[in-house]
Specification:
This protein has 215 residues and is mostly helical. The protein is built from nine helices and no strands. The mean pLDDT is 83.
Length: 215
């Protein structure tokens, strides 16, 4: 079986396992909805665009950690050995990244929709802000998938993932907040080309590094 077919098979396996249980997806959705609702009870109304933007990305950050941490940590050693006999390491990491990207895109759309429903929409350029959210979701998925793969080999995987992700995710968040703030202010989209380029470069570097190191 070539690499493409292996990736397709593994993605289908991930979707089938998720669809059978639904516990993880429902738990993540409950986390997002309840967090936004708690923020509403605390603030009632957010009139400052920077606060509105920062709060949304905080919610998305912790939601993505909860969603993607399980990528490798939930895999038993026996199952990993079975994967080793039927597929390549590159196919496994690619399938995990693609599946987590789809999961994060779905999660981000739901989170943004509920967040803008609960709090007044302060977006100057809603379409470009939506693009920034999608790009941020892809970035979260690629970064946390790689780190989850590394952390799963340690005893304290959850703590190690937090330590490893900190130096990578902070620069990513800084760029994302700046990009989304430009969209909130309704600035010309050409102003944000540098931030978009940096995010694309980060994704390319992370995915390339994953393909080289994961085997």
């Amino acid at each position: 079986m070539d690499l493409l077919n292996q990736v397709k098979f593994l993605i289908r396996k991930e979707i089938m396992l998720e669809w059978r249980s639904k516990y993880a997806l429902n738990g993540i959705l409950l986390y997002v909805v309840s967090t936004v609702f708690v923020c509403y009870l605390a603030f009632r109304e957010i009139t400052s665009p920077p606060t509105w933007n920062a709060l949304f990305w905080i919610i998305m950050l912790f939601a993505s950690v909860n969603a993607i941490t399980k990528s490798f940590i939930q895999e038993s050693r026996g199952r990993q050995l079975y994967y080793y006999t039927i597929t390549s390491a590159q196919a496994i990491i690619i399938s995990k990244i693609i599946y987590n990207i789809f999961l994060m895109l779905l999660l981000s759309v739901i989170a943004l929709g509920f967040y803008t429903l609960v709090f007044k929409n302060l977006l100057g350029d809603p379409l470009f802000y939506f693009f920034a959210v999608l790009l941020g979701s892809i970035s979260f998925a690629s970064v946390f998938t790689m780190i989850s793969g590394i952390a799963s080999k340690a005893n304290n995987a959850g703590g190690l993932m937090a330590i490893l992700s900190f130096p990578v995710i902070i620069p990513l968040l800084v760029v994302l907040i700046k990009l989304s703030k430009n969209a909130m202010d309704g600035l010309d989209r050409s102003v944000s080309y540098d931030e978009i380029g940096v995010l694309i470069a980060i994704n390319i570097i992370v995915i390339t590094t994953s393909l080289l190191l994961f085997p």
